[in-house]
Amino acid sequence: MKIFTAAQTRAADQATIQSEGISSEALMERAATAFTDWLTARLSPKEAGEILILCGPGNNGGDGLVVARRLYGRDYTVRVAVLPSENKSGDFQRNFQKLPPEVIVTELSATNLLPIPAGALVIDALFGTGLTRPLEGLAAAVVQHLNAAQARVVAVDIPSGLFSDAPQPADSIVVRARHTVSFELPKLAFMLPHNAEYVGQWHVLPIDLDKKFIEETATKLHFLDAALLAGRLQKRARFAHKGTYGHALLLAGSKGKIGAAVLAAQACLRSGVGLLTLRVPAVGYDVVQTAVPEAMCLTDPAADFVSELPDLTPYSSIGIGPGLGKEKAPQQVLAQLLREAKVPLVLDADALNILAENRELLATLPPDSLLTPHPKEFERLAGPARDDYHRLDLLRDFCQKHRCYTILKGANTCLGTPDGTLYFNSTGNPGMATGGSGDVLTGILTALRAQPLSPLDAALIGIYAHGRAGDLAAQVTGEAGLVAGDIARFIGPALEELTTKESF
User: Fold this and answer.
1) Which residues form the YjeF N-terminal domain (predicted)?
2) Which of 56, 75, 318, 437 is the most exposed place for a label (fewest CB within 10 A)?
3) What is the CATH number of the domain that holds 419?
């Protein structure tokens, strides 16, 4: 699914109006009706109570007026409050005239902000994506009053005061919504950690915007869902054998951190690799042979950490980093691997920290390598970010400069690519914020890179399946009870959901 800028979204609206020969008011009716359907499917009139709809003077306010009319027609109790303005949009004015006379309308003022009881249901339709400067004056006072009320706030399209695709100025006044209901395509603002307190849980409703325009409009931003992955993971051939799906090598573990190697190995095996070899320090031999009997264990001469690189000839992909440690010997192993590897690499954890501390090694990073940093590890690699948008710029620059794929882990894990495209993941849950979750991801990616998949397909499938496995696991364990091993156990079902089925 594509992510459009605010300008592209407005262009999609206009393309729809022109291709269908409808008015902007008719498209507004369509969007507001979809919103109303969404809301009424979740709350009965009794559960909703009196609904306060805050309307600005533009088309977002026009949406709110249509919602008010539609809700009233379904026997909901509705009250409307509008911001005074001499520049009301035409669609706002037309829908204002259509309001049933029974709907109470109040004009807001500095002395009349309306009381908002705690727990009241409030629909925020003050300002939409056309906003280009922070709220001030009466508009800011209304939003501050709303945020202080502890109401159940649902934002139409985007929380008022929030910029759709640009950094938020410091101390901006923004509606804090419990739910944000947008239309057709998600917005970049929804993907970023800093905006979570404003957006709440977001939803995107289809309103049949012009498909041809959407397909033909280029963007470097995508929301990774199952539809985007369709056809990328093929069903296994009947006469396939273990050699068909590659032989992966994992360089992982050190004294006290052999568990990281085990988790990565379990995930690698669950992700369909044909053969797996673990290179671990001697201290890990008994643990690996017991915990992961399906893998071959190649012990290092050193007892406590990996100190030598084995012969790389047999392997189709190599993952390095989980629990590796940053001693001098593992640093030398990584440096040698970067020089000599002829197969795809996946770098995580201590491998990334070694890169950050020995920046000359970045110049030897093979093209199409896959890196999996969490935000702090990425900061060590690319430098500190001023804000979430600047972090995305750093991610693009880093991937383009080093010709690599970088998975920036988080609530909407973001994949950066060498051509500057960014993909935000749709799967996963807060229960995955647990030790070892990243090791599982490394195992998944190492397995997929061993198979006949492009680096982009392997990365996209890997991050989606990782999150989906976490979602499936959480249905059994609950989010609080989720551990990394649970994620590994559900990788198979997650991948099966993505596998192309045979047609008759």
Assistant:
1) 9-215
2) 75
3) 3.40.1190.20
